[in-house]
């Protein structure tokens, strides 16, 4: 397949992105977000799930859970390039919502070949939110690793870790192993035997939990044992690209907010942006963001048009975005000086979201190690 | 990996086909002598002649100056030069030697010259019959370019120039120089005027050229001294006192940010037949290299560093791609003004890492028979500082980006 020079970013993608920008400016401006998500600085806040459910209903009404669902299952069937544009806006606004989790789950469901998966896609298009319960306690992203097993009666037992926005979603895609291999199972969050245990986390713009499954029998098989890993591998480039796009959007907010501060904060009778010790790191933030942003659209376009290149491009995008997020987060606090170190300054919300996304699905070093195996060869097998 | 957009015009599609067909049968044979790493390193007459013959042939085939009008020696096409560049790179073609002419003089003459100047100067520039050099920097005007002191004094229909220019790449081969002079000592930015000077004709008549030896031991750039050098007023570009604004057109194109695409900017093949942007070659180098007695490609830290550069290399290419998609660009100068900064640092870090991969063997000079890759990497690493310093040092580039794109207070 050919890869369009313009990434395939068309008018529809533009409209989706513009609509997202406007809605989130109106309903999730930084002041409003801070009032909502940072109302409390007490340690107990770390386990709370704080979000604007009315805004979430607006997002559903605008069809945002349907954008990535193929048209034949009631969705809009947009390309990943358009979804990346939307995810950039979610990161720019740092909006607490289960949308990123649901978009990631959508690509997993779309990679499963079963009637249950097709039913799930129709429900997502209609507004169901879903998250992935596919990570083990050691934080492994490997497709075969899980602490959940299918017992003799066909029920799920074990614990899934690091489940994103678990208390906002209606259902979970659980990865579980059995003698025939790894399968994927849809579980409603109110299923008997399932307990969502909140994690205390730093990021104020999401919630995270581990999910205990004590003989959960009410499940639908999305991918049969032995077929789950394949579906996860197929969806992984899209997942990495979406999280990278969120980080790029958030990093752009960090850049613009810090540049605005450097234009207005006066010390030594000059705006501090006059000083090259401030100016040059701001430019380096921009350079890192732009490289990562171009790689995000490159990865999205590869997923849409050249699947065999998708994994390499997506890992490059996630690595570049993770590193840009790390750099921009550090500089956004440092260049704000003392005020940047306080709870009342808005930038810690983005800082914490970025630190969370940096490690989610593997940080830059992890992605590069995987790329090195692929592009250089495994250690001991290269020379 | 990038293929043409389905939205490519029929003119563009036909031109791409023409480029492919012509390049398939007309690449010059590899010379028996060593080619320089890039146009800034051309040192010998035989290198220059080989590369000028190639540029002349490519111009005759329509691959140089594609987007300029036919009456100015161009191809009369629209938005086609990038296609020629893409195909030249894909074919592994040599670079074009008239880099100052193509990248800086041509767009400046096109935007600021008279019709007569364009008709006289552009055709032999595109065909490499006349080589160009740049007379901007001076001993006291480096990063602070507007401090130029070379003085042109009006003398009827002529100007008398006195002064001293430095870092003048290709001056010893050049017929023409783009020359920035002060014409009013009372005003800094409004006191400059821009000329095109026939410096070869001036040698011995007020022009003296002295080669400078680079840290690599190579020649390539020069000092140029003017002493009562007389040039005609019809070789002035634009109005008296407009020199700084004309120079900005030159610099915008030098840094890859101007509206006119430069033929074969930076993708051509130099010595060893490897592209000058050799990050992909690092993988092969690491597979072949032993370092501290072990394969370099097994060293986890080097593996990480190699992949970081592969990512930056791809990001650079994808920035170029995204710069052409207005919907994905926030500020029109944001990506173009990063071009020189990111490319020069990418090349420098690539060369530095290659030396690290080579380990002890990176100590070997180009002339040593045991030097890996012909000793090109330590050599390229030293030369890379030419690019991070030239065309406005990268410190100045960061000032420009911070001021023009982020709106920060001017550092001067």
TrEMBL record, chain A:
SUPFAM superfamilies: Acyl-CoA dehydrogenase C-terminal domain-like, Acyl-CoA dehydrogenase NM domain-like. The keyword Oxidoreductase applies. Residues 11-127 form the Acyl-CoA dehydrogenase/oxidase N-terminal domain. GO terms for molecular function: acyl-CoA dehydrogenase activity; flavin adenine dinucleotide binding. InterPro entries: Acyl-CoA_Oxase/DH_mid-dom_sf, AcylCo_DH-like_C, AcylCo_DH/oxidase_C, AcylCoA_DH/ox_N, AcylCoA_DH/ox_N_sf, AcylCoA_DH/oxidase_NM_dom_sf. Its cofactor is FAD. Pfam families: Acyl-CoA_dh_1, Acyl-CoA_dh_N. Keywords: FAD, Flavoprotein, Oxidoreductase. Residues 243-375 form the Acyl-CoA dehydrogenase/oxidase C-terminal domain. Belongs to the acyl-CoA dehydrogenase family. This is Acyl-CoA dehydrogenase. It comes from Nannocystis exedens.
From TrEMBL, chain B:
Keywords: FAD, Flavoprotein, Oxidoreductase. Pfam families: Acyl-CoA_dh_1 (PF00441), Acyl-CoA_dh_M (PF02770), Acyl-CoA_dh_N (PF02771). Residues 282-406 form the Acyl-CoA dehydrogenase/oxidase C-terminal domain. Its cofactor is FAD. Residues 52-129 form the Acyl-CoA dehydrogenase/oxidase N-terminal domain. One of its GO terms (cellular component) is plasma membrane. GO terms for molecular function: flavin adenine dinucleotide binding; oxidoreductase activity, acting on the CH-CH group of donors. Residues 133-228 form the Acyl-CoA oxidase/dehydrogenase middle domain. This is Acyl-CoA dehydrogenase.
């Amino acid at each position: 397949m050919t890869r369009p020079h313009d990434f395939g970013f068309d008018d529809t993608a533009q409209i989706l992105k513009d609509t997202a920008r406007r809605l989130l400016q109106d309903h999730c401006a930084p002041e409003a977000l801070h009032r909502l998500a940072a109302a409390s600085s007490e340690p107990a806040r770390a386990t709370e799930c704080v979000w604007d459910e009315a805004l979430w209903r607006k997002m559903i009404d605008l069809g945002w859970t349907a954008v990535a669902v193929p048209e034949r299952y009631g969705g809009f069937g947009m390309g990943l390039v358009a979804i990346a544009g939307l995810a950039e806006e979610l990161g720019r606004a740092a909006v607490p919502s289960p949308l990123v989790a649901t978009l990631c789950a959508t690509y997993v469901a779309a990679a499963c070949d079963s009637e249950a998966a097709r039913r799930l896609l129709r429900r997502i298009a209609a507004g169901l939110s879903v998250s992935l319960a596919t990570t083990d306690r050691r934080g492994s992203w490997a497709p075969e690793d899980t602490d959940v097993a299918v017992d003799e009666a066909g029920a799920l037992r074990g614990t899934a870790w690091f489940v994103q926005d678990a208390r906002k979603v209606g259902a979970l895609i659980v990865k579980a192993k059995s003698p025939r291999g790894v399968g994927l199972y849809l579980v409603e969050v109110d299923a008997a035997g399932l307990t969502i245990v909140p994690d205390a986390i730093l990021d104020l713009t999401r919630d995270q939990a581990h999910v205990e499954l004590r003989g959960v029998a009410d499940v639908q098989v999305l991918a049969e044992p032995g077929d789950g890993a394949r579906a996860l591998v197929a969806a992984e480039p899209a997942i990495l690209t979406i999280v990278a796009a969120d980080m790029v959007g958030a990093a752009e907010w960090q850049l613009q907010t810090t540049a605005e501060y450097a234009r207005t904060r006066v010390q030594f009778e000059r705006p501090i942006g006059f000083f090259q010790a401030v100016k040059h790191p701001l430019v380096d933030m921009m350079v890192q963001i732009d490289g990562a942003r171009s790689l995000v659209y490159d990865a999205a376009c590869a997923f849409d048009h050249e699947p065999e290149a998708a994994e390499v491009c997506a890992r490059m995008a996630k690595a570049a975005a993770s590193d840009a997020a790390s750099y921009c987060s550090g500089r956004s606090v440092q260049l704000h000086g003392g005020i940047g170190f306080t709870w009342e300054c808005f930038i810690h919300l983005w800082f914490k979201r970025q630190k969370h996304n940096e490690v989610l699905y593997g940080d830059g070093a992890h992605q590069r190690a995987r790329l090195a195996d692929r592009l250089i060869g495994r250690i001991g097998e290269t020379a | 990996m990038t293929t043409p957009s389905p939205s490519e015009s029929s003119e563009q599609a036909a031109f791409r086909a023409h480029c492919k067909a012509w390049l398939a049968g007309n690449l010059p044979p590899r010379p028996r002598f060593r080619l320089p790493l890039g146009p800034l390193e051309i040192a010998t007459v035989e290198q220059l002649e080989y590369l000028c013959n190639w540029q002349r042939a490519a111009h005759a085939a329509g691959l140089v100056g594609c987007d300029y009008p036919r009456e100015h020696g161009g191809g009369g096409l629209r938005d086609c030069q990038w296609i020629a560049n893409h195909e030249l790179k894909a074919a592994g073609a040599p670079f074009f030697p008239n880099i100052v002419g193509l990248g800086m003089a041509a767009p400046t003459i096109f935007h600021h010259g008279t019709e007569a100047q364009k008709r006289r100067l552009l055709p032999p520039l595109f065909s490499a019959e006349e080589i160009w050099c740049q007379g901007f920097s001076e001993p006291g005007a480096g990063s602070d370019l507007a401090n130029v002191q070379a003085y042109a004094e009006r003398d009827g229909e002529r100007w008398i120039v006195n002064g001293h220019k430095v870092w003048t790449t290709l001056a010893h081969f050049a017929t023409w120089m783009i020359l920035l002079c002060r014409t009013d000592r009372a005003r800094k930015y409004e006191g400059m005027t821009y000329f095109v000077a026939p410096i070869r004709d001036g040698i011995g008549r007020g022009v003296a050229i002295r080669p400078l030896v680079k840290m690599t031991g190579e020649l390539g750039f020069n000092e140029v001294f003017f002493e009562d050098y007389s040039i005609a007023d019809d070789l002035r570009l634009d109005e008296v006192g407009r020199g700084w604004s004309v120079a900005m057109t030159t610099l915008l194109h030098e840094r890859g940010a101007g509206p006119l695409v430069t033929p074969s900017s930076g993708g051509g093949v130099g010595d060893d037949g490897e592209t000058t942007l050799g990050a992909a070659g690092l993988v092969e180098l690491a597979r072949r290299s032993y370092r501290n007695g072990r394969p370099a490609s097994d060293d986890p830290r080097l593996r990480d560093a190699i992949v970081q550069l592969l990512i930056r290399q791809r990001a650079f290419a994808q920035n170029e791609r995204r710069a052409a998609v207005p919907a994905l660009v926030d500020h029109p100068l944001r990506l173009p003004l990063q071009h020189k900064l990111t490319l020069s640092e990418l090349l420098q870090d690539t060369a530095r890492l290659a030396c690290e991969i080579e380990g002890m063997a990176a100590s070997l000079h180009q002339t040593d028979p045991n030097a890996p890759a012909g000793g090109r990497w330590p050599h390229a690493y030293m030369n890379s500082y030419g690019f991070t310093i030239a065309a406005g040092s990268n410190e100045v580039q960061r000032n420009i980006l911070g001021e023009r794109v982020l709106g920060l207070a001017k550092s001067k």
